[in-house]
């Protein structure tokens, strides 16, 4: 009798997700009624996987005071190829400007192309003088209005990741219509990408109510709850997840100092660290449903 625990440390956010699969599950584990999987189900799963990875990358590399930049065009009838060329040129010029100014240039960028909205780009960028960004964008033919928003100090920027994945759905669809593929988002080089750690926990059941580790607080989701749960579309097994925030880390610039390294990871009990790990990645539901 066992279940699988996935732990992801992304900046000040520690995500814990518990789930089961066909090989590893507690005795008498209930499953949701089976139904035929549809292409729409797979699209939803793919989006959740992309959202997870974007959330981890944002939380691990950006924090309070960093920028959410939206880049618009003066010319409204931009094609996908023209916008891609303009964005590539802007990224090169922004890197050059940052190099001359002696500051880092870390970012994640994606493109929104909703049917009723003109093409524009969203960029998560490390804190810098907005004039540097504006000058680089204005030097690009077609570069227009720019808006800036500073990231807050909540530590977990999952809402932002969710928004960006939804806004890029139309971009993926338009590329598919043209018989081409595209990436949901493009990061700059050398960004940290947290890797999930899996444990097989020998237990008859999991804790129904999460408890934060010392020095952390449980993150409240939009519904005010600290725990999310559901059933996976394909396996039918239940899952639950919760996030813990270490605001000591969140207060540090960009949340870039993490625990880790060799030996027992901070925040994991010695009992948990003795659980036998699977030899390979378990058959994990790709994302929360």
Structure explained in plain terms:
The structure is a single chain. The chain contains 7 helices and 11 strands. The chain has helices spanning 39-61, 80-101, 130-138, 158-167, 169-177, 247-250, 270-273, and strands at residues 2-10, 13-19, 67-73, 107-112, 120-125, 143-150, 186-187, 197-202, 217-218, 228-231, 238-245. A hairpin with a 6-residue loop joins strand 10 and strand 11 (238-245).
Could you describe the largest sheet, including whether it forms a barrel? 6 strands, antiparallel
Strand portion, in percent?
A: 15-25%
Rg, nearest Å: 21 Å
Instruction: Give the CA-CA distance, first to last residue.
Output: 24 Å
The structural class is alpha+beta
Shape type: globular
- Poorly predicted runs are 253-280, 285-289
What order do the helices and strands come in, and which of them pair?
Blueprint: E1 2-10, E2 13-19, H1 39-61, E3 67-73, H2 80-101, E4 107-112, E5 120-125, H3 130-138, E6 143-150, H4 158-167, H5 169-177, E7 186-187, E8 197-202, E9 217-218, E10 228-231, E11 238-245, H6 247-250, H7 270-273
Antiparallel strand pairs: 1-2, 1-8, 2-11, 3-5, 3-6, 4-5, 4-7, 9-11, 10-11
Structural key phrases:
28% helix; disordered C terminus; 6-stranded antiparallel beta sheet; alpha+beta; 5-stranded antiparallel beta sheet; 289 residues
């Amino acid at each position: 009798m066992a279940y699988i625990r996935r732990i992801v440390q992304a900046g000040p956010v520690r995500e814990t997700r518990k789930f089961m699969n066909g090989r590893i599950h507690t005795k008498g584990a209930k499953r949701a009624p089976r139904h035929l999987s549809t292409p729409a189900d797979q699209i939803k799963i793919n989006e959740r996987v992309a959202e997870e990875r974007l959330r981890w990358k944002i939380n691990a590399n950006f924090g309070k005071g960093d920028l959410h930049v939206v880049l618009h065009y003066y010319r409204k009838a931009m094609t996908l190829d023209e916008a891609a060329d303009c964005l590539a040129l802007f990224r090169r010029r922004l890197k050059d400007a940052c190099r001359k100014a002696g500051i880092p240039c870390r970012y994640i960028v994606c493109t929104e192309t909703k049917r009723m909205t003109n093409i524009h780009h969203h960029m998560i960028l490390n804190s810098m003088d907005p004039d540097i960004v504006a000058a680089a964008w204005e030097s690009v033919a077609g570069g227009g209005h720019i808006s800036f928003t500073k990231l807050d100090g909540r530590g977990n920027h999952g809402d932002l990741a969710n928004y960006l994945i939804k806004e890029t759905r139309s971009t993926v669809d338009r590329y598919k219509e043209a018989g081409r593929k595209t990436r949901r988002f493009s990061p700059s080089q050398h960004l940290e990408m947290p890797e999930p750690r899996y444990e097989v926990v020998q237990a008859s059941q999991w804790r129904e109510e999460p408890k934060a580790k010392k020095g952390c607080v449980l993150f409240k989701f939009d519904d005010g709850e600290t725990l999310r749960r559901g059933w996976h579309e394909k396996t039918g097994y239940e899952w639950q997840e919760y996030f813990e925030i270490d605001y000591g880390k969140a207060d540090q610039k960009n949340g870039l100092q993490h625990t880790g390294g060799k030996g027992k990871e901070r925040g994991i009990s010695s009992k948990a660290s003795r659980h036998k790990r699977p030899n390979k990645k378990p058959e994990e539901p790709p994302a929360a449903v």
